[in-house]
Automatic annotation (TrEMBL):
CDD domains: RNase_HI_RT_Ty1 (cd09272). Residues 2-80 form the Reverse transcriptase Ty1/copia-type domain. It comes from Vitis vinifera (Grape). It comes from the Eukaryota. It holds the Pfam family RVT_2. This is Reverse transcriptase Ty1/copia-type domain-containing protein. Signal peptide: none annotated. InterPro entries: DNA/RNA_pol_sf, RVT_2.
């Protein structure tokens, strides 16, 4: 069932019927040119197959590599080297415009590329004063894109609309200011629809606090998405599941008592506690080795990185089996 609201008219029905009714309604308002099924939109390519919809930005990636003169570069297996040192200094660039332009294009590429989200989040933190080392990090990402030009996200029909989230953090992972990195991803109906990698605004005093802040950020996203689906007529019936690999953070979310170990945490972080008590969200423990959000918080080895990308639904159809 599809529900579309246009100018006071609610259109319901099957896929084809609803789209046809929508087109007819729009044509009555202003001239409309029907270009047929969606194939390309704002740099995003949409392909259909037996497995479902495949979203990618292959043409955008090729143009990016061509503009940066990296089309003939040596491919890399991962966006970052597993031995990356963030505290390494370098000579400042004469003009940061080139660096800022590349990073800006990479940010747009993360729309269908969760595999580079952490890497792009990291290099975007140095936009104001990039160095030669930072430019090398960007070129490493471009070399990885050279090897995975056709990578994208697969959307399948799995017969349900359950919302499942994974949250994680890398406690004091930034060796420069010792701030932690929040990473989370969210699935709706078994398909990856939302992900994020962002440095936390404050220094966490413990790994439990860092994980708790990541859970709070993920819970806000989950509640927003549930409200959106409800407005569209697809309200999930079962409680949303949030997976975390830190049991201490889960206990803080379930415990309504404030004590010495939690009184320094801002009140807005306790939003998840309200959702857990209201049974809107259920927290579940997951082993660190199975934590999908690891890909958004830290630099991983090639084997672990590609295993997580496969589980997230980020695939490259051009890669050998």
């Amino acid at each position: 069932m599809v529900l579309i609201y246009v100018d006071g008219l609610i259109i319901t029905g099957s896929n084809a019927d609803s789209i046809a009714a929508l087109k007819k309604k729009l044509q009555g308002k202003f001239p409309v040119k029907d270009l047929g099924p969606l194939k390309y939109f704002l740099g995003i390519e949409v392909a259909t197959s037996r497995k479902g919809l495949f979203l990618n930005q292959q043409k955008y990636t090729i143009d990016l590599l061509r503009d940066s003169n990296m089309l003939n570069s040596k491919p890399a297996n991962t966006p970052f080297d597993s031995k990356l040192q963030l505290d390494k200094l370098g000579d400042p660039l004469d003009s940061p415009n080139y660096y800022q332009k590349l990073v800006g294009k990479l940010i747009y590429l993360t729309i269908t590329r969760p595999d580079i989200s952490f890497a792009v989040s990291l290099v975007s933190q140095y936009m104001h004063a990039p160095t030669v080392v930072h430019l090398c990090m960007v070129k490493r990402i471009l070399r990885y894109l050279k090897k995975t030009i056709g990578r994208g996200i697969v959307m399948r029909r799995n017969g349900h609309t359950d919302i499942i989230g994974f949250s994680d953090s890398d406690w004091a992972g930034n060796t420069i200011d010792r701030r932690s990195t929040t990473g989370y991803c969210m699935f709706v109906g078994g398909n990856l629809v939302s992900w994020k990698s962002k440095k936390q605004p404050v220094v966490a005093r413990s790994s439990a606090e860092a994980e708790y802040r990541a859970m709070a950020a993920e819970s806000c996203e989950m509640v927003w998405l549930k409200n959106l689906l409800t407005d569209l007529g697809f309200s999930p019936t079962s409680p949303m599941k949030l997976f975390c690999d830190n049991q201490a953070a889960m206990h803080i979310a379930a415990n309504p008592v404030f004590h010495e170990r939690t009184k320094h945490i801002e009140v807005d972080c306790h939003f998840i506690r309200q959702q857990v008590q209201s049974k809107v969200i259920q927290t579940h423990y997951i082993r660190s080795s199975d934590q999908l959000a690891d890909a958004f918080t830290k630099v991983l080895s090639s084997t672990v990185f590609h295993r997580l990308m496969f589980k997230l639904g980020s695939i490259d159809p051009l890669a050998p089996a």
